Amino acid sequence: MAITETGRPGPVRDEALTALAADLHGPLLRPHDDGYDPARRVWNGNVDRRPAAIARCLDAADVQRAVVFARDEGLLLSVRGGGHSAPGYGTNDGGLVIDLSLLKAVTVDADARTAQVGGGVLWRELDEATQRVGLATTGGTVSNTGVAGLTLGGGLGWLMGKHGLAVDNLLSAEVVTADGELHTVDAEREPDLFWALRGGGGNFGVVPSLRYRLHPVTEVLGGMVVHPLERAAEVLRFYRDFCPTLPDEAEAYCALLTDPQAGVPVIALLLGYNGPLDEGERVLRPAREFGPPLADLVAPMPYVARQSMLDEPNAVHGLHRYWRSAFTEQLDDGLIDAVTAAAAGSTSPLSAVIFFYVHGAATRVAPEDTAFAARRAQWDVDVIAQWTEAGESERHTDWLRSSWAAAEPHMDGSAYVNHLATDDAPEKVRASFGTNLDRLRLLKARHDPTNLFRLNPNIAPLTPQPRRSAD
Ligand SMILES: Cc1cc2nc3c(=O)[nH]c(=O)nc-3n(C[C@H](O)[C@H](O)[C@H](O)COP(=O)(O)OP(=O)(O)OC[C@H]3O[C@@H](n4cnc5c(N)ncnc54)[C@H](O)[C@@H]3O)c2cc1C
Q1: Which atom of ligand 1 is found nearest the CA of 103?
Q2: Cα 305 vs. chain centroid, distance in angstroms?
Q3: Cα torsion for 339, 344, 348, 351, to the nearest 10°?
Q4: How far apart are the CA of 308 and the centre of ligand 1, in A?
Q5: Residue-range definition of the domain harbouring residue 43
Q6: How would residue 9 be classed by pLDDT, with cut points 50, 70 and 90?
Q7: The domain spanning residue 56 has which CATH number?
Q8: Distance between CA 2 and CA 20 in Å, rounded?
Q9: pLDDT digits (tens, 9 = 90+) for 218-263
Q10: 389 in the same domain as 266
Q11: Tens-place pLDDT, residues 343-395
Q12: What is the arithmetic mean of pLDDT over 122-131?
């Protein structure tokens, strides 16, 4: 490793990278290579970083070589699945990116109702494969989000009320830890490491493949019920009372956004039901009759159609983004007023405020059973600024910061790990791992004592202090 006069790691040596490139089965992209520029970019166009190299791994052995290389060279390391980290953890300046986007294998066992999934698979790809045999597992609501990254933080989605979070359906995983070892972990094999992967948010290693439990899912109810933004406070008060009435099969999210067709600000209830359609019609009726709405677009649809309902503009790579988020168990009037004012003052038609309601099976798992501790009925609230022009960033980030300053005091001091921002306070990051933080810190010290995997919602390693002898 090149060490500079300041004692910090210097730029990685060319000959070291050339040797790594020769060792890998997949390509190693460096700044002079064709394809480097698109490969360094991620979903958030506001993240403009230039890693020294991007290792496009073809198999677990490539991942092992790249991890050992980053460790030995003292390089900053990013791990990228689908590239959807809002803070842009999937890229960095001057370090190495382990890019899993070529690990696309999906093997569905329809009889066993399981799927083996490569670490670079996107939800769209997994849903298409499992839906061919009428199965699905809880997954992300925007179709080009990475399966692995979303799962490792917990995994909220349309099926969570009935089937739990993505982590609750994870049966086993391969993981390459910071020492370069490849482990296959599940409830019997290295259960501590398996526990930590289910909510530890990328802190414990690189996951080249995962195995999921699947469930029968065919036609579902889905769609939006749209009201004018002027009625947002009224709709949100209805929504906070409606959510706790939902059975496990139903989901209700809510978004304050600009109608892409009409170009006017609206509030939309995003409804779903995964079960007998007539029962779904009955359960969702109060939310469709309230108002009356401007439009009721709820209808039976294939599951994959519901899984891409929020893609526009959220699936578009390269737009500029800034995102803040928190959990809350209550939608108090102050929060309703704050988000309504935020939406009314929005500086971009692509920006939005979104509420995900977490309930049902996702909340019936004990907090200590998986690393994902936030097992309570609650809303994940996201204020998302999105815009097209880099030169306008200040205006939109100012909108987000002032909106967030008004909303945040009305919410808990924790967030969904996968939605934490880099400018969230360290105490909020710690609070987001909840009662599992200490166990996670001890496991981090065991599996990644030097914090090689630190570009993530980070868990600081905690080395147990030796007990003093009595004398
Ligand atoms: C538009 C959008 C919609 C979203 N919707 C949802 C949603 O419905 N439900 C939900 O729960 N979350 C949602 N999220 C949050 C999402 O779960 C996180 O952003 C997640 O980190 C994305 O994973 P990725 O692989 O696409 O991201 P990347 O940027 O590729 O990775 C982010 C981090 O995940 C870890 N990681 C990714 N892949 C691997 C791997 N194979 N092995 C080890 N670590 C890995 C790494 O720490 C990495 O830094 C959404 C995000 C966006 C931007």
Answers
A1: 41
A2: 20
A3: 30
A4: 16
A5: 14-99
A6: low
A7: 3.30.43.10
A8: 16
A9: 999 999 999 999 999 999 999 999 999 999 999 999 999 999 888 9
A10: yes
A11: 999 999 999 999 999 999 999 999 999 999 999 999 999 999 999 999 999 99
A12: 98
Ligand 1, CB within 6 Å, residue ranges: 42-43, 79-86, 89-90, 100, 119, 140-142, 145-146, 148-150, 152-157, 202, 206-207, 314, 418, 455-456
Residues 6+ apart with CB under 8 A from 435: 367, 368, 373
Q: Is residue 432 part of a domain?
A: no
Tell me the two tokens of residue 104: 């696309």
Cβ–Cβ under 8 Å, residues 362 and 168: yes
Residues 256 and 208 in one domain: no
Query: Percentage of residues in the chain with pLDDT exceeding 90?
Result: 94
Q: Which atom of ligand 1 is nearest to the CA of 455?
A: 49
CATH number of residue 256's parent domain = 3.40.462.20
Specify whether 135 is located in the same domain as 223: no
Which amino acid, one-letter code, is at 31? P
Query: Which of the listed residues 79, 257, 447 should we mutate to test ligand 1's pocket, taking the one with most ligand atoms within 8 A of CB?
Result: 79
Residue ending a domain, among 71, 99, 127, is: 99
My answer on whether 385 and 285 are in the same domain is: yes
